[in-house]
Amino acid sequence: MKKRIKRIEIGNLNPLKRYVAFDLNTNSKIYRQNGLLYKVPRFFGDDLKFVLENLKKKKMNNVVQIKDIYTKNDKDYAYSMRYYKGYKSIRRFKSRDLSLKFEDCKKIIKAFCDLGRRNMIYYDFHKGNVLLQKKTNDIVICDIDGLEKCRRKEDKEEQLTDAVCLCAAYIYNTGFPEMKAYVKTKRKLDSKNIIRSCLDTIGTKDFFKNVDKMTEIDQEDIKRNQRRIKQEAKQEYKDHFDYYRNF
Length: 247
What we know:
By secondary structure, the chain is an alpha+beta fold. It contains seven helices and eleven strands. It is elongated and about 60 Å long. The chain starts with 5 loop residues before the first strand and ends with a helix.
């Protein structure tokens, strides 16, 4: 029998210790106690309920583990999840060895693919929402308030496009929006064109073959071009907003 999420009438969480999440950009209230985080989102809608139930039914090692939902006056208003002690967001690993970053990227893309297979789509892509355990090299997607129920077939392919862009941003130490703007120009990202091949084959049987090749990306080529691509990505992002601002 599949596990269902438990609902607990708790009243309020104010007696718990308030938790400050340095790695997350969130307006939700978060509390911490006994190895758990308790999160009170700004809005507790049907999509969040679907996501919580879905994640609870079958534990995913690459997404935060959900425990219970808390109710107040018979209305859902908070949920608890595992506290990942020792994990930090990937934006804190600018100097991580590139060979390890390439392995991380394969895990990140797999995690978002697994979410798509379970009919969930992520809408809050940035490096602060992917956690890494340096000792074990484990990857975990956090801040699941950014997940929604999938409603279009195209959403799954767009999610994988964003996942590859996030990985490219991680490799080149730039922001996700800047890298996404750069990717749209169709310019080459690495000498073997592996990142571009990943993007071009999303939705085909060759996609995962190309993802596996990410460990073959030329590290010296990345180091030589990192600063240039980072600057060009920032400029593309700026130009994109300047263009629409002039309308």
